[in-house]
Amino acid sequence: MTDTPLIQTRALTRRDERHQVALLQPTDFALHRADRVSITGSSGSGKSVLLRALALLDTPSSGQVLWNNQPIANAQIPHYRSHISYLSQRPALLEGTVEDNLRFPFSLKTLRQRQFDRNAVTSLLGHAGKAADFLSKNALDLSGGESQVVSLIRTLQLNPEVLLLDEPTAALDPTSSREVEALIDAWFAGDKARAYIWVSHDLDQARRMSDIHLHMSAGVLSGAISR
């Protein structure tokens, strides 16, 4: 069914058991194909908590995350994460060249049947204003903006269905931010079956990069999508 949500939550909650604090109030949410969603809100309001729960990086305290209307078994989580990709504000790169970093995912068990595609990567670099010789740069010598571009391309080359973008440009200068935005735009335009959620403190960016704008306050998501 074309209207089946890519990701759906049912009464999803997260709680800090140590301090007995609710981080995410019961949340019903649905992300459909071709959705461009932004979430804004103050620091500590639960935006990152929601994204990390959707990525299955943190175990929900209660409720469910569904993928294509199905619950996700523990054994399916690596496969799920190859389709539903989380990108944080702080990229983690390995020693070696940019190309070494981009080749790394294909050494993982879940992706060994796939191959690094230099042409596809070069095309992605072009959207961010980078030439092919950028691949030979030392990853540890890159600026923050360049590192985030590499981290994003490392994800985009795997053709995820959904991007969960946790303030990926918060620490970047305006030029680097626009490079990241251009990459996301190009990825989204390449297949209208894709979708993303972008957490941002920047209201102008949220308006620019989304069609659906939600707000988070004290663990409560407002303006929830309904179809």
SSE blueprint:
Blueprint (H helix, E strand, L loop, with lengths): L6 E10 L4 E11 L4 E5 L6 H8 L7 E6 L2 E2 L5 H7 E4 L10 H6 L14 H10 L16 H13 L5 E5 L7 H16 L5 E5 L3 H6 L3 E6 L2 E3 L5
Parallel strand pairs: 3-8, 3-9, 6-7, 7-8
Antiparallel strand pairs: 1-2, 1-4, 4-5, 9-10
Helix pairs in contact: 5-6
The termini sit apart by: 14 Å
Structural category is alpha/beta
| Oligomerization status of the protein chains | single chain
Tell me the count of domains: 1
- Specify the CATH architecture: 3-Layer(aba) Sandwich
Spatial extent as radius of gyration: 17 Å
What share of residues are in beta strands?
Answer: 25-35%
Judging from the principal axes of the Cα atoms, what is the shape? globular
So what's the CATH class? Answer: Alpha Beta
| Discrete helix count | 7
What does this entry look like structurally?
By secondary structure, the protein is α/β, with parallel strands linked by helices. It has one domain (34-57, 73-222): P-loop containing nucleotide triphosphate hydrolases (Rossmann fold, 3-Layer(aba) Sandwich), CATH 3.40.50. The protein is 29% helix and 25% strand. It has helices at 47-54, 77-83, 98-103, 118-127, 144-156, 174-189, 203-208; strands spanning 7-16, 21-31, 36-40, 62-67, 70-71, 84-87, 162-166, 195-199, 212-217, 220-222. A 6-stranded mixed β-sheet has the order 6-7-8-3-9-10, sandwiched between helices. The longest helix is centred in the last third of the chain and has 16 residues, at 174-189. It is globular and about 50 Å long. The two termini are 14 Å apart. 37% of the residues are buried. The model has no long low-confidence stretch (mean pLDDT 92).
